[in-house]
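tl;dr need the bound structure. longer version: we got a ligand (2-phosphoglycolic acid) that a collaborator sent over and nobodys looked at where it sits. i said id run it. heres the input, straight from their email, havent touched it
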Amino acid sequence: MRIICSETYEQMSAKAAGFIAAQIHTKPNSVIGLATGSTPIGIYQKLIKWYEEDWLSFSKCTTINLDEYCGLPADHPQSYAYFMHEHLLDHIDILPENAHLPNGLNEDIHAECEAYDNLVKSLGGIDLQLLGIGNNGHLGFNEPDDCFHMNTNCVNLTPETIKANSRFFGSEEAVPKKAFTLGIRPIAQAKRILMVVNGLHKAEIIYKSLFGPVTPRVPASILQIVPDLVVCGDAEALSVIVREHPEAVEMF
Ligand code: PGA
């Protein structure tokens, strides 16, 4: 595990984007796992800039998104499909057929989950998985629970997540109550995992995830067992780790 601490969000985003660019330069047909949320937006801006400067091409890449709300069509402004198009996919040269998200409108939940897992398997797994972390330690929408949910599944969002995401919907009532999420297995089996975390409000949960017990009550704690984990954080998010385990942190 590498933990890389940058002073600011911009520096953290540039560092993390550099890992994604290096992955694509090394293997142009990489399968990249993508995340939504506020944290990766700076990374996506950097990737778009490098594409516009002709330094990076996504033409052979495939992307697999972590999650999607149940019941929202792809053109709903709060759907994750919409978010990905707005923040990345519409601004780079990825082939539309190579950019994947769960279909939030599929009412056959079992079929949708199985198809998504089979898609990842058919691609040979994920080369690099980008992850944010929820305030409660969730990965994608794998929420704290009594066990890790290994396969892609449809989850009931926790009250904390509904509250956290209500900032995008205007009210808690408007937030969908269920979402599809890639399971823990395809995430943890990614050949490399790149986690990004910023802000003081994430300092305790990232510390608990990386240095506390591995438990489904803190889904991100599963990352302690993955062979190639890079965590890029800003100084605020990594402040507890820097205080408790300064030897574990690289300053960038
Ligand atoms: P955030 O969300 O990047 O908006 O903090 C992360 C997450 O919930 O996984």
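gonna send this back to them w/ a short note. The domain at 2-251 is CATH 3.40.50.1360 (Rossmann fold).
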